[in-house]
Automatic annotation (TrEMBL):
<dbReference type="GO" id="GO:0047971">
    <property type="term" value="F:guanidinobutyrase activity"/>
</dbReference>
<feature type="binding site">
    <location>
        <position position="104"/>
    </location>
    <ligand>
        <name>Mn(2+)</name>
    </ligand>
</feature>
<dbReference type="InterPro" id="IPR005925">
    <property type="entry name" value="Agmatinase-rel"/>
</dbReference>
<comment type="similarity">
    <text>Belongs to the arginase family. Agmatinase subfamily.</text>
</comment>
<dbReference type="GO" id="GO:0008783">
    <property type="term" value="F:agmatinase activity"/>
</dbReference>
<dbReference type="InterPro" id="IPR020855">
    <property type="entry name" value="Ureohydrolase_Mn_BS"/>
</dbReference>
<feature type="binding site">
    <location>
        <position position="127"/>
    </location>
    <ligand>
        <name>Mn(2+)</name>
    </ligand>
</feature>
<dbReference type="GO" id="GO:0033389">
    <property type="term" value="P:putrescine biosynthetic process from arginine, via agmatine"/>
</dbReference>
<feature type="binding site">
    <location>
        <position position="218"/>
    </location>
    <ligand>
        <name>Mn(2+)</name>
    </ligand>
</feature>
<dbReference type="InterPro" id="IPR023696">
    <property type="entry name" value="Ureohydrolase_dom_sf"/>
</dbReference>
<feature type="binding site">
    <location>
        <position position="220"/>
    </location>
    <ligand>
        <name>Mn(2+)</name>
    </ligand>
</feature>
<keyword id="KW-0464">Manganese</keyword>
<dbReference type="Pfam" id="PF00491">
    <property type="entry name" value="Arginase"/>
</dbReference>
<protein>
    <submittedName>
        <fullName>Agmatinase, mitochondrial</fullName>
    </submittedName>
</protein>
<dbReference type="InterPro" id="IPR006035">
    <property type="entry name" value="Ureohydrolase"/>
</dbReference>
<feature type="binding site">
    <location>
        <position position="131"/>
    </location>
    <ligand>
        <name>Mn(2+)</name>
    </ligand>
</feature>
<keyword id="KW-0479">Metal-binding</keyword>
Length: 286
């Protein structure tokens, strides 16, 4: 990833890129298992500095790629166990995991491991979908359920959860009623249209305070006109500029992990998604 060194463990690292190549939890179009591979391929064009922010992350952090979690593509529950165990080892070293997904199911076992070390964490969840369903196709574990499971297990500090970019049709008149009932801040995509998200992120930073925070960024939060390479696209989403404003708006937070999920390269026949992925890594000053 990013032409960084490879090492087998997270020992001695400040942060580590980790791939979780699964799409066993998807309910629509598969293909996210190939996300980590393609993100790495495109990252070869990421340079060491950001000219606007002056970010130089590789001068202040020791970062490496530690490869992929050895998942079980035939058994989603076993895969979740393998992810949880792998991330326990990563966070035990004090390293911050930077995850390349993989479908959004992976956030659940990752947060199990992260919360074991840090306690309940705040969450900035950027997505077209709330992913708080109780069941998906008759199953409790899937890419539409991770944050319901996290709340049930006490992994999240619910007063420090913000969901940004939600949109699309739902199964009830208020598709986000459950999120609001938990104390989440819900920012629907329509509230983001035609405006900068810098003021929003100032409010989100205040909401997160100094506690540990996890950032989960689903590529389908962006409008499919910009990022078609995903399994469940929804029109009228965020712009790449707004996506960068969200990422830059996390500066100064106590980030203990982050992920980019639901990247399904097969549906991005033009390579548009790749332009977005190549701009994210060095866009923040921290």
């Amino acid at each position: 990833m990013c032409k960084l060194p490879f090492q087998e463990t997270a020992d001695g690292l400040d942060a580590a890129f980790v791939g979780v190549p699964i799409d066993t939890g998807t309910s629509n179009r598969p293909g996210a298992r190939f996300g980590p591979r393609q993100i790495r391929v495109e990252s070869a064009m990421i340079r060491a500095y950001n000219s606007w922010t002056r970010a130089a992350p590789y001068e202040s952090l020791k970062v490496a790629d530690i490869g992929d979690v050895n998942v079980n593509l035939f058994d989603l529950k076993d895969t979740c166990k393998k992810i949880r165990e792998a991330y326990r080892e990563i966070v035990a070293t004090g390293c911050i995991p930077l995850t390349l997904g993989g479908d959004h199911t992976i956030a659940y076992p990752i947060l199990q491991a992260v919360a074991e070390r840090h306690g309940p964490v705040g969450l900035i969840h950027v997505d077209a979908h709330a992913d708080t369903s109780d069941m998906i196709l008759g199953e409790k574990i899937g890419h539409g359920t991770p944050f319901r499971r996290c709340v049930e297990e006490g992994l999240l500090d619910c007063k420090r959860v913000a969901q940004i970019g939600l949109r699309g049709s739902g199964y009830s008149p208020d598709n986000y009623e459950w999120s609001r009932a938990q104390g989440f801040r819900v920012v629907e995509a329509v509230e983001c249209w035609h405006k900068s998200l810098v003021p929003l992120m100032e409010e989100v930073r205040a909401q997160m305070r100094s506690g540990p925070v996890y950032l989960s960024f689903d590529i389908d939060s962006l409008d499919p006109g910009f990022a078609p390479g995903t399994g469940t696209p929804e029109i009228a989403g965020l712009t790449p500029i707004q996506g960068l404003e969200i990422i830059r708006g996390c500066r100064g937070l106590n980030l203990v992990g982050c992920d980019l999920v639901e990247v399904a390269p097969a549906y991005d026949t033009t390579g548009i998604d790749n332009k977005w992925r190549k701009t994210t890594t060095t866009k923040s000053k921290n």
